[in-house]
């Protein structure tokens, strides 16, 4: 299984290197469209290789997706936490009731009954 994972990672690495080699041309990224930049009287622009723009876009999309999914699952995590607290309270109550049940009995018999 480990070799399959390494082969898969190697294939991804080869693909990423091929994309980077094929997209080495420099592109200009502008913060605003040209017409809007003329009205605002300023524009931020930077020149980067195209493969960096592609990789940064993929990484940004993954991070946004992970964050969105984490926010979407908040209600499920909160409900699971509530259920866990209820189960802990019920377990404490069961142990307390077992202790009260065996209050006047022999300790050995109480232990045997608790195990079985």
Secondary-structure map with pairings?
Layout lengths: L1 H21 L3 E5 L3 H7 L4 E5 H23 L1 H28 L5 H9 L1
Antiparallel strand pairs: 1-2
Summarize the structure.
This is LapA family protein. 76% of the residues lie in helices and 9% in strands.
Proportion of helical residues: over 70%
SS strand fraction: 5-15%
Overall form:
elongated
Q: Order of SSEs, N→C?
A: HEHEHHH
Largest sheet: 2 strands, antiparallel
**Alpha plus pi helix count:** 5
Query: Biggest sheet: strands side by side, in what order?
Result: 1-2
Based on secondary structure, the structural category is: mainly alpha
The residue ranges in which pLDDT falls below 50 over 5 or more consecutive positions are none
In whole angstroms, the N-to-C terminal distance is 42 Å
Give the overall pLDDT as a whole number. 88
Question: What keywords describe this structure?
Answer:
mainly alpha; 116 residues; 76% helix; elongated; two-stranded antiparallel sheet; 9% strand; 5 helices; 2 strands
Describe the structure.
It holds the Pfam family LapA_dom. This is LapA family protein. InterPro entries: LapA_dom. It comes from Donghicola mangrovi. Keywords: Cell membrane, Coiled coil, Membrane, Signal, Transmembrane, Transmembrane helix. The protein is mainly alpha-helical and 116 residues long. The chain has two domains: 72 residues, no CATH class; 43 residues. It is built from five helices and two strands. A two-stranded antiparallel ribbon has the order 1-2. The longest helix has 28 residues. The chain is elongated. The two termini are 42 Å apart. The mean pLDDT is 88.
């Amino acid at each position: 299984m480990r070799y399959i994972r390494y082969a898969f990672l190697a294939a991804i690495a080869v693909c990423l290197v091929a994309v980077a080699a094929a997209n080495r041309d420099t592109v200009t990224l502008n913060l605003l469209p040209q017409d809007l930049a003329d009205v605002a009287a300023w524009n931020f622009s930077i020149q980067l290789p195209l493969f960096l723009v592609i990789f940064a876009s993929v990484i940004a999309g993954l991070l946004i997706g992970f964050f969105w999914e984490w926010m979407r699952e908040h209600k499920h995590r909160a409900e699971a936490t509530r259920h866990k607290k209820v189960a802990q309270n019920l377990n404490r109550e069961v142990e307390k009731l077992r202790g009260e049940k065996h209050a006047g009995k022999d300790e050995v018999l109480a232990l045997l009954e608790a195990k079985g």
